[in-house]
Amino acid sequence: MAVADTGSFSAAGRKLNRAQSVISYGIANLEAQLGLKLFEREGTREPQLTEIGRAMLEDARRMVGVLQSIRSRVDGHHQGLEAEVALSVDATLPSPVLVRVLKAFEAQFPTVMLRLHIGSLGLIPDHVVSGQSDLGIGGLLGEVDVHLVRIGFMSIVLAAAPSHPLARLPKPVALEDAREHTQLVVTDQSERTKGRDFGVFAYRTWRLTDVRTKHTLMREGLGWGGLPRWLIADDLASGRLVELDLEPYSEVRSSLYAMHRVDRSPKPAAAWLIDQFKRQLGCFNEFEPDHLPEEEPGTAHRSAP
To answer: Which site from 87, 148, 189, 300 is most exposed, i.e. has the minimal number of CB atoms within 10 Å?
Structure first.
């Protein structure tokens, strides 16, 4: 690589702080081992890569890259850096925030592998408590034995398609009217809140396992419900969804937390992730309404029907 990059044996020697004879011997020895001629030396002022030499150069660059990665991984291990971070993230976390954090993570920790699980509600703390994830990002439902760091919030609003009967009623919409129409509800797949409902008003409900499907069905008029404001901001602006003013309901900020097991302190990459999520959510939340009440800790999603 040094000979190819510098254009001569002597320049490669200077770059590597070796005598030219050592470089020449090293290339000749490599050619003998491979049974290939890597450089043309006759009839040229400087050595020129042969056709097979150019192909082998790319292999050499990949090998050096792997060696550098091994060295970085070993150095990171000596410094306490994780080989892998298992991360569980609630699907309601703003996608732009997740993307920005993970892009920065890739640049900051190129040797650390990432295992990412997208879930909802109680699955996030369940993964943390069980050790399936090193770090969880999401809200809380009830009490859970994890260490919490508040990193931001999200705003939940009630909405429906403009063709939905509730969207055509005078505001505010009476609770009695809302109860008569199918409410779309994301069900907690964990056992943490089995048999309990949060923010469910209607007599008839459709139970879903993910917020994206709920979003799609609401846009098609197949029920009403609550969704993060960031997720439906474009729909509200374009009229594909309309915000419902339900009498007993007020839009609130639902707190988001980074969570890890109480008996395990975050290692460097996980600790960095906590700080980055808090930083990026802070930037993102600057554009959220600032007049909303806060939910009490432990009741996140209660107003996210």
So the answer is: 189
